[in-house]
Amino acid sequence: MKKQGGFTLIELVVVIVILGILAVTAAPRFLNLQSDARESSLQGLKGAMAGAGSIVYGKAAIEGKETSGINVDVEGIDTIYGYPTATSAGIAAAVDGLNADWDVVSAAGVTNTNAISYTFKGQSQEGFTDASGCHVRYEQATSTAVGLTAKAVVLDDKC
């Protein structure tokens, strides 16, 4: 009689169970796509704000308004030190579609008057502060000195 080689049914079931356990524990770590997409969208908004701020600063420099510490209009955009202000008449006017596609974060704890934060349209704003959340914070320029010009910061620890 010939001896047949192969796996028994029990061995196959054990392998399938082990693969199932691995899939259940490892898959969520690799498939966190929604959070990654949100973080990438926030990075895109940060880039749009930085680009718009630089373009407005260039226009302000051409007009000789880049050193003014008071609100100055540059082609319909409120600026301070040549960069858009942290208002709807400043950065929101400089970035096309910002008010239409994003919401202003108005949760308790966001109190910086030289900054404005934007999050996803319709997203809950509970627990967002100046230091945490799922939003982009635009900080207007406070001087012409290095490090005090306008900047955008991504806060994505709660996405």
TrEMBL record:
Keyword Hydrolase assigned: no
InterPro entries in the cross-refs: N_methyl_site, Pilin-like
Entry keywords, A to Z: Membrane, Transmembrane, Transmembrane helix
Annotated transmembrane regions: 12-31
Pfam family, one: N_methyl
Keyword Protein biosynthesis carried by entry: no
NCBIfam families recorded: IV_pilin_GFxxxE
Official protein name in the record: MSHA pilin protein MshA
